[in-house]
Each structure stands twice: as C-alpha cells, then as structure tokens.
Amino acid sequence: MTKSVYVLPGDNIGPEIISEGVKVLEAVNERLDLEIKVRYGLIGGRALDATGDPCPPETLMEARNSDAVLLGAVGGPKWDDCEREMRPEKGLLRIRQALNLFANLRPVIMFPQLVAASSLKPSFIEDLDILIVRELVGGIYFGEPRGFRILESGEKEGFNTLKYSESEIRRVGKIAYEAAMKRGKRLCSVDKSNVLEATILWRQVISDMSAEYPDVSLSHMYVDNAAMQLVSKPSQFDVIVTGNMFGDILSDISAMLTGSIGMLPSASLNEKAFGMYEPCHGSAPDIAGQNIANPLATILSVALLFRYSLGMPDAAVAIEDAVGKVLDRGFRTRDILTDDTILVSTSEMGSAVMEELKVTK
Fold it and tell me: Which residues are catalytic?
C-alpha cells in the first residue's frame, strides 16, 4: 500500500537537515521495496514570504491527506519584526493544534559513542534512556486570554493564561503510562503544584490514573527540582510526563546529556497515531547555509516516523543501527566533535547513514 509523507523543510538550516532526512527515508524505501511517496510544502518564514501566511490552508490540507509529516525547523531574525500572529513560530503552533498533535514524544538516548561529547561525567550518562512525554497543544502556549493591555497607571502589561482540563491531562497521561508499561514501568509526573492551580489538577488526574496501571511506579516532582535532577542523577528517570512549557524546557536540558541538541528527535502524535516528526532544535540561522548542522536528530525523527505512523519498527531499527555504525566510524559534525574523531559536513553525515542502510542487510 502506498504511503504518503508530507515534507515541510522550514527555514534556515531546515532545508539542509531535511535533505539528509529524505535521503535516509528514500534509502529505506528502496531497501525494503516500500511505496512511500514524498511531497513538499511550506511552513514558517518561507511560507510567510511566499503566501503571506506562516501556515497556509494548503499546508494544513496536504498534511491531513498524508500519513505523516516530516518537519525541519522554523523561524529566524528575518521575521522578528512581523506582527505576532504572523511570526513563523505561530505557523508551527497552528499546525500542531489543527492536527491535534497533543502528545510530543522526545527520546533522550545516550549513544555510547558520544559519551565524551556530553557535558556530564561518563558515569552519569552511560546507558541513558529517558522518554519525555510533553503535552503539546494546551497549557500556557495556547491558553486564552492572552495579549497586552494598558493598566490604569499607564504601564503596559503582557499576560498569558495557563490552563488544563481533565480530558487534556488524561489523554497525554494515557500515552505516558502506556509508554512506561513498554519500558521500565516508572513514570515521573512533573508539575509546579505548590504554586499553580492548573498543575494541582495535573497532579490529581495523573495520580488518579495510576489505579489503571498498577504495574507502573508513579512519582511526582516539581519542575525546578526535575531540572536539577536531570543534570545530577538522570539515570533515575524512565518516562517523564509534563505540560507544554515545562516539557519544552526539560527536553532542551536533556539534550545536553546526550552531547548535543542535534541528537534529539521528536514525534508529535494525535489519537490516531498520525504524527509530525521533527528535530527538537531550532532553525539555527547563525549556521544556515554552511553545511555544518547536525542532521542526526532529523534522521532519527525519520526512524520515529517509521515506528509510530507507518507501523514499520524494523525500518526504524535499521535507521537507528545505521546511525550507530556511522558514529562507530568516528564521523562527527561540529557540535559533537571530540578528540580522535572525524569532522564531517551535514551532507556527508547524511550520506554516510544512507550508505550504511544500502550496504547493511
């Protein structure tokens, strides 16, 4: 059966890393004799420049008519002066919400070849394997009311709303509990329930759900403590579930455990396992066009695409194994370069993974 992957390269380094992701996707397509069709569209700044909209209706329509979406990264200084609703990042938030991609899965895995690239001691991060489940279409990033207002004093004030409903918490909690059941059966729910009412409810709902998963050991942690624990004793975590903003921050902290945010893939899923797959990093305008960005987070996102949306776990494993073999050969982009390793470009790294897929059966 033909499958369709809709590719949104995005801005700055987005097209560079997406090219390498598509190389790998096509190599798997050929190796396994699949019928995957790749189509391209616009989002973010490039979409704004071309259509006047960072998330055009055509992009949403094509995404809905595909089996999965592969996204690069959006945004950059070029569009900093756009009105708030027209910024490239708003396009990203809109497609997440329109496709109801409420569960963002961010695996934090320590490739043994990259232990020396981490900022932590090797003993802290050897065999590290954490899954962060971030709620993605609620919380303070989407809450209303929001905006700016003038106070009676004449002073300008900006305001946002943090809110979660029971159903929003329950559906992402279900994803996290079920993930924990397939892993180490440990779930840590991160909140700030000592000061935020929305997260008091979060803790109550996640706690109530534990009766449905008696084999899962549930713990709770305030977000500030969780940030500290991630860099002091990361091995204590198996699955972390948390809200939108906290998940955004904690996953970036976790990225440095692995040596670089250029190693962190992600999958954003709805209730039907339709997903959008993207690296956790941004568009990095400072290095755009230099062919030095790390494409491995994007390539590993392609692996997640095969695993979750296309239902082809063998293809996912093949990609992950190929990445490991390339790292075994000592190939490194600038962000993960250490002594006695070989500096390669974005395109060289992607080609090396692609060649491993072609020669390894």
Answer: 141, 192, 224, 248, 252
- Name the 3-class secondary structure at 245: helix
Pairing relationship of beta strands 36-40 and 342-343 according to DSSP bridges: unpaired
Which residue has tokens 């950059």? Answer: 76
DSSP assignment of 71-89 equals EEE---GGGTTS-GGGSHH
Q: What distance lies between CA 31 and its chain's CA centroid?
A: 26
Q: What is the largest CA-CA distance in the chain?
A: 71
Along the 361 residues of the chain, how does pLDDT read in single tens digits? 789 999 999 999 999 999 999 999 999 999 888 999 999 999 999 999 999 999 999 999 999 999 999 999 999 999 998 998 899 999 999 999 999 999 999 999 999 999 988 888 888 888 899 999 999 999 999 999 999 999 999 999 999 999 999 999 999 999 999 999 999 999 999 999 999 999 999 999 999 999 999 999 999 999 999 999 999 999 999 999 999 999 999 999 998 899 899 999 999 999 988 999 999 999 999 999 999 999 999 999 999 999 999 999 999 999 999 999 999 999 999 999 999 999 999 999 999 999 999 876 5
